[in-house]
């Protein structure tokens, strides 16, 4: 059973652990692919779920006009600090996927790292895609990542740790539920901060995802009105998805 107060919440300790695990400059191949796809883009690029700026900051450094939102103020604080430290200008504010300005001003909208899967209701995902289409300029693009459906079978518990100054940060995960028919998973994440061998702080989060098949998402994007959808497998431009693919990037175009 999920508790709405715990589902997909990135509070202060979670944001600190995220920054230790995925700092600015760490890429899984996604930063390079997004930079290549967006090279030469003129006009604002919007990233909802910008998080700590792992992708937004290097794209801003590449000269793109970045706008970012995130529901977590703690994550945005880290993104703001990273931008300020590098002398970058980026418009950042608290917001969710459906709080986008739909005035048709964006050259591109990006959701890397599979964050669209945090939306658990398929009808809500469709409504978000419709809003993004309206918010894009003619010829604009919506680029997003999807995890493979293999994730439905990946239920083994795991734990990791990071030394952060005088503190030891730990993160452990156990699977709570998997619904294959609904393509949803719920995991319990426990964030801990240890100092001097004693537990100093802890946070609990229920991490819930609604996974999508590649063709399933392609059909949704086409159904809401995107004119063309291109596929890039495992962060390799124009690579076709196969049964071994772990991550798929979809690039959907609004009619010019």
Automatic annotation (TrEMBL):
Pfam families: Methyltransf_25
Domain of life: Bacteria
Signal peptide: none
SUPFAM superfamilies: S-adenosyl-L-methionine-dependent methyltransferases
Residue span, Methyltransferase domain: 46-140
Entry protein name: Methyltransferase domain-containing protein
């Amino acid at each position: 059973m999920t508790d709405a107060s715990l589902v997909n919440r990135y509070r202060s300790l979670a944001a600190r652990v995220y920054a230790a695990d995925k700092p600015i400059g760490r890429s899984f191949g996604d930063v390079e692919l997004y930079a290549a796809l967006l090279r030469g883009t003129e006009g604002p690029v919007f990233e909802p779920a910008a998080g700590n700026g792992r992708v937004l900051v290097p794209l801003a450094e590449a000269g793109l006009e970045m706008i970012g939102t995130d529901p977590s103020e703690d994550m945005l604080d880290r993104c703001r600090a990273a931008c300020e430290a590098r002398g970058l200008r980026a418009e950042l504010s608290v917001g969710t996927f459906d709080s986008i300005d739909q005035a048709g001003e964006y050259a591109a909208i990006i959701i890397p790292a599979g964050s669209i899967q945090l939306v658990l209701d398929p009808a809500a995902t469709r409504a978000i895609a419709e809003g993004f289409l309206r918010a894009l300029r003619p010829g604009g693009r919506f680029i997003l990542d999807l995890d493979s459906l293999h994730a439905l079978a990946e239920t083994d518990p795991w734990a990791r740790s990071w030394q952060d100054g005088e503190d030891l940060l730990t993160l452990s995960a156990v699977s709570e539920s998997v619904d294959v028919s609904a393509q949803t998973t719920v995991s319990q994440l426990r964030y801990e901060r240890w100092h001097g061998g004693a537990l100093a702080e802890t946070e609990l989060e229920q991490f819930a995802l609604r996974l999508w098949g590649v063709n399933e998402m392609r059909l949704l994007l086409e159904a809401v009105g995107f004119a063309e959808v291109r596929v890039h497998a495992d962060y390799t431009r124009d690579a076709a998805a196969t049964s071994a693919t772990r991550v798929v990037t979809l690039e959907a175009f609004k009619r010019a």
